[in-house]
Specification:
Layout lengths: L15 E3 L6 E5 L9 E7 L8 E3 L3 E8 L2 E5 L2 E5 L4 E4 L5 E5 L5 E8 L3 H12 L9 H10 L2 E3 L3
Antiparallel strand pairs: 1-2, 2-3, 3-10, 4-11, 5-8, 5-10, 6-7, 6-9
Helix pairs in contact: 1-2
């Protein structure tokens, strides 16, 4: 019999602070709190901020824009979306996005099944306060492998 899940209520201030790649994030729901079904993270992006093209094997993402305007490119199709918009990214879809405003933006990112929280926690431990130097590349490649994440600009 599986372990019973407990209800969770959490304010933004109670979220777990991490900073993978120097990007401030709050883990709002951890994978282990949802029985691995999903994780939820609030991510803040500075103007122009966002990841390079990447994909997640076997993991979907939903992104809800809370603040700002973002340009999303999914499988080569680009669209610009503002607050109260949602994006679904199926597993194995090459995607990238960036905040195209001159102010910080904020998105709520769900990963299904869960796991992004673990990935970002590991990257945060590797990069927080250290920048990201060439010596860390090999460690990042291993983290990406364990979490089935692939950057497509390599």
């Amino acid at each position: 019999m599986s372990e019973r899940l407990l209800p969770v209520t959490r304010s933004y201030d109670e979220g777990e602070d991490i900073q993978p790649f120097g990007t401030p994030q709050k883990i709002m729901l951890k994978s282990e709190e949802t029985g691995g079904a999903f994780s939820a993270i609030v991510v803040r992006h500075e103007p122009g901020g966002g990841p390079p093209p990447h994909s997640h094997a076997g993991q979907a993402e939903y992104m809800y824009i809370v603040e700002g305007t973002y340009e999303f490119t999914l499988d080569g199709v680009t669209r610009t979306l503002g607050p109260d918009s949602i994006v679904f990214i199926p597993p194995d879809t090459v995607h990238t996005f960036r905040n195209v405003t001159d102010k910080p933006g904020k998105v709520l990112d769900w990963s299904l099944p869960g796991g992004q929280d673990g990935y970002f926690r590991e990257v945060s431990a590797l990069t927080t306060g250290k920048g990201f130097g060439p010596e860390m590349r090999e460690q990042l490649v291993e983290i990406n492998r364990r979490h089935a994440t692939r950057f497509h600009d390599e």
